[in-house]
Inverse folding.
């Protein structure tokens, strides 16, 4: 993978099946335009935060859950060309009233992978996060990501990826910068860890906390963890070209 599109979407809980069907129906359209992989994940354990969280990021209403998803492309150019073509594709034109979520509150952006590893299996559970990172801390953040990835893989994770936003468009209602209260000198990171199961995630996370390679309490970090938003998600769809 050389380019990633990340999404956060508020979906009414009673629209889960409708959203899943829509996602499955869209797979051949996206892969037909060059998408390499599409993953859709449903809110399972998304905590409420004191400063920020994923619910506030998309202005979620009481009955709504969070969908964390991404699309993998072989290049930024392929992604941009595909979206230009899809704008004119009648198959992609869905009337707003037929959508199982409020598209005005969906947020998305493109991300350049900073660090990733080879996938070693099919996942059913995902840890996802979005974080504000000072632009000048790219190298330090990349180093932290590589360390965290090594720990996660050693503790049972199947695949990890951390992405760096190259350009985030300001949204009218929501966007990734608003989601983590990013400041003028900050960009946004989007990443995830894939696990074979929720049980593997729970056991692996416990092992990770005990690993000596993990940052220690009070350590100088290249990002503001208080504004990081995250959650655990069950995989609804994992489509590869």
């Amino acid at each position: 993978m050389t380019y990633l599109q990340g999404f956060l979407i508020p979906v009414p809980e009673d629209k889960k099946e409708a959203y899943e069907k829509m996602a499955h129906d869209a797979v051949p359209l996206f892969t037909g335009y060059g998408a390499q992989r599409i993953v859709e994940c449903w809110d399972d354990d998304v905590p409420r935060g004191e400063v920020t969280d994923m619910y506030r990021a998309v202005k979620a209403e009481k009955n709504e859950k969070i969908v964390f998803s991404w699309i993998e492309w072989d290049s930024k150019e392929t992604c941009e060309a595909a979206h230009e073509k899809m704008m004119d594709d009648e198959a992609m034109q869905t009337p707003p009233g037929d959508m199982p979520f409020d598209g005005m509150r969906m947020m998305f952006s493109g991300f350049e992978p900073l660090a990733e590893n080879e996938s070693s299996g099919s996942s059913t559970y995902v840890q996802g996060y979005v974080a504000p990172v000072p632009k000048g801390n790219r190298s330090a953040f990349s180093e932290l990501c590589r360390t965290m990835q090594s720990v996660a893989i050693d503790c049972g994770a199947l695949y990890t990826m951390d992405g760096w936003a190259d350009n985030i468009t300001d949204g009218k209602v929501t966007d990734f910068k608003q989601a983590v209260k990013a400041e003028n000198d900050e960009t946004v990171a989007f990443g995830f860890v894939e696990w074979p199961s929720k049980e593997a995630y729970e056991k692996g996370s416990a092992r990770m906390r005990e690993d000596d390679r993990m940052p220690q309490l009070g350590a100088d970090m290249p990002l503001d963890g208080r504004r990081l938003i995250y959650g655990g998600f069950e995989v609804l769809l994992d489509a590869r070209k």
